[in-house]
Design goal:
32% helix, globular, 257 residues, Rossmann fold, four-stranded antiparallel β-sheet, 9 helices
Length: 257
């Protein structure tokens, strides 16, 4: 039986006069990769932050690993779930290695000293994201794409079971978008892990996500397997514009008519 890592029950959420979702029921199980799609202003980022426990709900309940969010300590939650923000730049100067190593903070003991394992996890994450050789660089000298990969490396070093990502392909060139999403997908769809990410690119969502949450921006939503929701009818409804789908090299691609 699959393990449920994230559950939202009867979740209602609004921003000002915009209803993000009304009575949302969402179940994210281990091994799944969910993509959140919707037009600008639909509240995708706000919903992601709410599911992470960083923004209050209007009503409803959210559970992480079978336990209500407010029943976790901050450390417990940081070990179980990791968040990648859409725009992230540390306010303090530091090296790339120091920043990635900060991802190990939830795992440190009472004295707060990093162990050889912590150093190894940070080095491995830097290696996986193609940043080897940049460990000593001041983070404020990195390009946008390098910073984004550094944030992904920090998330990998944190080793959460559930990853909540806001536009993980931001600032990355097309090749790096595929490489980083392949890396995240491979890591977080393994046993006892899951991935939920906000994306603007429908083609990336259809390529990497096995489930979709479509937010219309008026409280209405659709949630389910990608093969059921990634249709011209549903995506035309979502974006209020006619779209067409076609298969190309084994992948479904979308274009606006």
């Amino acid at each position: 039986m699959s393990q449920e890592l994230l559950r939202a029950e009867d979740l209602t959420l609004s921003i000002g006069n915009t209803c993000v979702c009304n009575n949302l029921d969402l179940h994210v199980e281990a091994g799944q990769c969910w993509g959140i799609l919707g037009p600008n202003g639909a509240g995708k980022t706000t919903l992601l932050h709410t599911l992470a426990g960083l923004h209050p709900t209007d009503s409803g309940n959210i559970y992480c690993d079978g336990k209500a969010l407010d029943e976790h300590t901050a450390k417990e939650l940081a070990i179980k779930r990791g968040v990648l923000f859409q725009n992230e730049l540390a306010g303090f100067p530091g090296s790339l290695f120091e920043t990635v190593l900060a991802g190990r903070h939830p795992h440190l003991g009472s004295l707060g000293w990093e162990s050889p394992e912590d150093l190894q996890q940070a080095s491995q994450a830097i290696d996986l994201t193609g940043l080897k050789g940049l460990e000593s660089r001041n983070i404020h000298t990195l390009s946008g794409g390098e910073r984004q990969r550094m944030e992904i490396a920090t998330l990998l070093a944190q080793q959460p079971r559930l990853a909540l990502l806001d536009e993980p392909s931001n600032h990355l060139d097309p090749g790096q978008q595929i490489i980083m999403l392949q890396l995240l997908h491979s890591h977080f769809t393994s046993a006892n892990h899951a991935l939920l990410m906000v994306l603007h690119d429908c083609n990336l969502a259809m390529r990497f996500c096995d489930h979709l949450l479509l937010l219309k921006g008026d409280g209405n939503y659709l949630a389910g397997p990608t093969q059921e929701l990634a249709t011209a009818e549903h995506l035309s409804w979502l974006y209020a514009h006619p779209v067409a789908l076609q298969r190309l090299d084994g992948y479904t691609c979308l274009h606006f008519q």
